[in-house]
Structures are given as C-alpha cells and as structure tokens.
From TrEMBL:
Enzyme Commission numbers on file: 4.2.1.136, 5.1.99.6
A Pfam match: Carb_kinase
Name of the protein in question: Bifunctional NAD(P)H-hydrate repair enzyme
NCBIfam families: yjeF_cterm, yjeF_nterm
InterPro entries: Carbohydrate_kinase_pred_CS, CARKD, Nnr, Ribokinase-like, YjeF_N_dom, YjeF_N_dom_sf
Positions of K(+) binding: N58
Its job: Catalyzes the epimerization of the S- and R-forms of NAD(P)HX, a damaged form of NAD(P)H that is a result of enzymatic or heat-dependent hydration. This is a prerequisite for the S-specific NAD(P)H-hydrate dehydratase to allow the repair of both epimers of NAD(P)HX. Catalyzes the dehydration of the S-form of NAD(P)HX at the expense of ADP, which is converted to AMP. Together with NAD(P)HX epimerase, which catalyzes the epimerization of the S- and R-forms, the enzyme allows the repair of both epimers of NAD(P)HX, a damaged form of NAD(P)H that is a result of enzymatic or heat-dependent hydration.
Coiled-coil portions: none
Domain of life: Bacteria
C-alpha cells in the first residue's frame, strides 16, 4: 500500500495540469464524486449531510460531493468557513454551482438545525495546512464536535482530518477527530502515524483519477513510503521447496547473553527455530553456558565464546549472525563487538547491547563501521536505543519519526527496523515501510528478542536482508494481533514465537486451517 506525503500530493496537484494537461478540476470532480458515493453507501434515514467547507480545494471537494448527493436525492447542507472571496479559484467555481442549485448554506453554526443532521463531513482544510491550526478554525471544530456528540452525528473528514500534519501525524490542539476519512490516490503519511492515526478513524482510499506513480517518477526529493501490510508480505513470502533439507534452510548463530540475561539470546534462538531456520546455535560467554543448556529447547544447539577469535570460528559455517541480545554493557564486551564488526562482513542482525558498543554513531568513532558492508546490517533498536545511536532526544525523533529513520538508514547504509508505535523499516535507499500490524499487548520484555530471531531466520532461509526485515517485522506483529484477538495483553513473546509457523503456513496456503 502506497503512502503519500504532503509534498508528493502537492507535486501531483501541480504536475497534473502542467505536464499532463489534466485540469485539477477533473481530479476534484473525481474526488468529490467518490466522497458522495461512499457517503451514499453509508447513508441512513431521512436526515441531512452537513459539509463543513473551508475556502481551499479541500472545501471544494466537499462542495462537489454535496452536488452529487443532491442528484441522489440525499438531503445536504453546507457550512462555509472563512472568506469565500479569498478562496481558491476552484472553490469559488464550486461555490457558485451549489449556490445556483439552491443548496442550503450556513455561515453561522448557530443557525444549523443539528437535530436534522446525520453526518458532518469536514472539508475545512486538507494538505494545504500551514503550521498550527488557526484559532477561529479551532473554535469551529470544538463547537461542531460537541454538537456531534450531543446529537450522535457521525464524523467524516475529506483527505485528512483538519489539524493533522499530513507528514508527521502531529496534531494541533482541537483537531477534528473523525470516524472515517476518505482520501484520494493513497493514504497520507500523517494518518499512518500517531496521534494522527487516531484522528482519522477508518481510512477509505479512493482513486485520484491520474496514475500518480507515473507523475512522481520525476519528483526530485523522491523517497517513497509504503504500508507494511499483509498484501506486501504475501508477495515476498516464498513456499519452501519440497526437497529443502536443513542445510538449505540455513543456520542462525545468536551471540548474546550475560549473567542474569540469558533469556534474551534464548528467546531469539527459539524464535529462529520456530521461524524455520534449518539449524540454530546460541552462543553465550563461557560462564553462562551451563545456565543456557539447562533452559534452552533441545532443537537449539549451544556454544560459548571468550574472545573475538572464538566468535570468528563460530560464525564460519553460519548463514547469519544475530548479535546483541542480553550481551550486557561491560566495556570488554563492547570492545569485542567493535573488533568483530571490523572483521566480519557476512549477514548480521544487530540488537540490544550491540548498540551500546556503537554509541552515538553520528558523532562517535563508530560512524563508518557499518557503511561499507557487502550485506547492509539489519539494526533493530527501540526508541531509547535509537536516541543513543543518533545522539538525539526521543521527543525530537518522535516529532520527525519517518524522516529520522530514513536519514539514519541512508547515512549508515543499514536496514533499520525502528521499534516504535508503529514500527518502521527503513531501507538503505531511503524507502520507508510503516508497519500496519501490532497491538498494545506487544509492549513486554522479550518481544524484541523474538523479533531478532525471526528476522535472522528469514535471512538464514535465503531472503535478502531487506525482505527478511520486512517479513520478520510484519509477521511478528501480525502473529501478535492474532493472539491479541483472544487476549489483548498478557500473551508472551514465546506465545508469538510458537505461533509464527502456523501463521506462515496459513499465508502460503490460505485453505489450510492450522
Ligand atoms: N492531488 C490531490 O491529492 C488532490 C487534492 N485535492 C484536495 O485539495 C486539498 C488541498 O487543497 P489546497 O487548496 O492546497 O489546501 P487546503 O484546502 O487544504 O487548505 C487551504 C486553506 O487553508 C487555509 N489554511 C492554511 N493553513 C491554515 C491553518 N494553519 N489554519 C487554518 N487555516 C489554514 C488557507 O488559508 P490561507 O490564508 O493560508 O490562504 C486556505 O484557505 C487536498 O487535501 C484534497 O482534499 C483536489 O481536490 C484533488 C487533487
Ligand atoms: K479535511
């Protein structure tokens, strides 16, 4: 699923007429008629649909929809916000039409017969919002929202709810909180991120009337964003060959663990087994080996290490290395990690305490350690770890969530799995995937270790690092969602781990009821 930024939407707006001779009014006519169709399909009873119309093109979309609904004999009325004579050209044209058609138009909220309204459709402002919502618009939204609550009126937004930043998902105070948002071409980035996502309600995507990917091919600042969803994963997952033996399915090596932190590499190793790696070895420091052996499932092989050369020996015949879970933050461990990264060039997934060794990558000596690898490293930090890696505050990262992930993945030439709400996968070329799965029950210790094991197992089975990060990240959350339908919290990382194989089987053979 493609996701558009504000700048991409505005570029399409500009290029449609300029380069392809497609007047913006055509796109608006499509947009408005789609809004009308969706509303008509939902419409109940004899009540009216009220359009809140700003004086830009977002408002004009609503005026087009009102005209189309009138044809369908659905009662409509309009509330005009702002000065009409200062509105966009298309707004003025559409306003003239609805006036000529005799549609009821209000300029004061006090005059609206709220008890006759079934739905409010907000076209106050869309991708044209600059900065924070202005005071007058906030006031209107607050009154409308309280009337909607009082009269049980359903709330719709056109393109993006008023007040939601179309790129970052940040919201102005008093933003419009919709039950549904009808958007055009592709969903906007800001409604895939929190808190914007909560303000958009259910998002309905309708065609724009122009093949926008074609238009965007020439866009200079073009780094695209996609939804990480089931459809994408179905295109990436490959059935296993009937004759695949354990050698063909790869061998994961997990290096981690320290005294009191043996669960982390153990969960990563077990998740690798459950995700289909042919073989899995977990290696821990010498003094932790006995504890590991007492706890780990029999399918996982065990080993131990003391030095970098031990790790070099262990990794020789392995398909992928997962480095970091529970490794601890001792200075000598950090040295081992750095020394090892400088010599080993194979596929690697870095997690947890491996990041401690890397420190602040933007300013520290480790900047450059990962950049020239033949297989870009996969890194799976949570926000706290990412804050340390980038030397920036969590708040600052959250404000520019997508862009922060993109900048880091490009600069360090890594596949970044940024574990947040939602998680992101950023590829070294700047392409971003926003995870569409996941739930609040996932916030438990050990979930990250399972993710590391899963991603590693997909690399072991022959997926490219980009693909493995996408498949692992999505299936981890998707499996948790399956568990979340039965109990929204309290399921364990190991529950996710154990279930993953059945979920993959279902996806590969939908008729299987496993
Ligand atoms: N390519 C597409 O996807 C298409 C999108 N369409 C629709 O067009 C809007 C974008 O329309 P645009 O005219 O560019 O802008 P808006 O209508 O969203 O907003 C402009 C008005 O908002 C005022 N404004 C700006 N910032 C603020 C603010 N912070 N608070 C309050 N009001 C604000 C602005 O006032 P100015 O004084 O600054 O001029 C304008 O009045 C898109 O979202 C789609 O719905 C097309 O219909 C089809 C193609
Ligand atoms: K809107």
């Amino acid at each position: 699923m493609r996701i558009l930024t504000k700048e991409e939407s505005q570029y399409i707006d500009r290029m449609a007429p300029e380069k392809y001779g497609i007047p913006l009014g055509y796109l608006m006519e499509n947009a408005g008629s789609d809004v009308a169709q969706v509303l008509a399909n939902h419409y109940k009873g004899a009540k009216s649909i009220l359009f809140l119309s700003g004086n830009g093109n977002n408002g004009a979309d609503g005026l087009v929809a009102a005209r189309h609904l009138m044809e369908l004999e659905i009662p409509v009325c309009i509330y005009l916000f702002g000065e009409s004579q200062k509105g966009s050209q298309l707004f003025k044209e559409q306003l003239h039409m609805v006036k000529q058609l005799g549609i009821a138009i209000y300029t004061s909220l006090d005059d609206i017969p709220w008890h006759t309204i079934w739905a409010v459709v907000e076209g106050l402002i869309g991708t044209g919002m600059k900065g924070e919502l202005r005071f007058q618009m906030k006031e209107v939204i607050e009154i409308v929202q309280s009337q909607c609550e009082l009269y049980s009126i359903s709330k719709w937004s056109i393109d993006i709810p008023a007040g939601v930043n179309a790129n970052t998902g940040e919201v102005s105070h008093s933003s419009f909180k919709a039950d549904y948002t009808i958007t055009f071409g592709a969903t906007k980035q800001g409604v895939c991120l929190y808190p914007g996502k909560e303000y958009a309600g259910h998002v309905i995507v309708k065609p724009l009337g122009i093949p926008f990917e074609k238009v965007l091919q020439n866009y200079q600042a073009y780094h695209n964003t996609w939804g990480l969803d089931i459809r994408l994963i179905e295109t990436l997952l490959r059935p296993r060959s009937a004759i695949a033996h354990k050698g063909r399915n790869g061998h994961t090596l997990v290096i981690g663990g320290s005294n009191g932190m043996i669960g982390a590499p153990l969960m990563a190793g077990e998740a690798s087994v459950h995700s289909g790696a042919g073989k899995t070895t977990v290696a821990v420091p010498d003094d932790c080996l006995r504890t590991l052996q007492n706890k780990v499932m029999p399918e996982v092989m065990t080993a131990s290490f003391r030095s970098v050369s031990d790790i070099m020996d262990l990794v020789k015949d392995k398909s992928v290395l997962a480095l970091g879970p529970g490794l601890g933050r001792r200075e000598e461990t950090a040295q081992i990690v750095l020394e090892f990264l400088a010599t080993y060039d194979g596929p690697i997934v870095l997690d947890a305490d491996a990041f401690y060794a890397l420190g602040d990558m933007a300013n520290g000596e480790t900047n450059g350690v990962l950049q020239s690898r033949s297989h870009p490293a996969i890194m799976t930090p949570h926000l706290g770890e990412f804050s340390r890696l980038t030397g920036r505050s969590i708040l600052d990262i959250q404000k520019n969530y997508v862009q922060s992930a993109r900048d880091f993945a490009i600069a360090q030439h890594v596949v970044l799995v940024l574990k947040g709400i939602p998680s992101l996968v950023a590829l070294p070329n700047g392409t971003i995937y926003i995870n569409m799965a996941g739930n609040s029950g996932m916030g438990t210790g050990g979930m990250g270790d399972v993710l590391t094991g899963m991603i590693s197992a997909f690399v072991a089975q022959g997926y490219e690092v980009n693909e493995a990060a996408l498949i692992g990240t999505f299936l981890h959350s998707y499996t948790a969602d399956r568990l979340g339908t039965k109990k929204l919290w309290g399921y364990t990382p190991s529950d996710v781990s154990v279930r993953i194989g059945s979920v993959i089987s279902e996806l590969l053979s939908p008729s299987l009821n496993v």
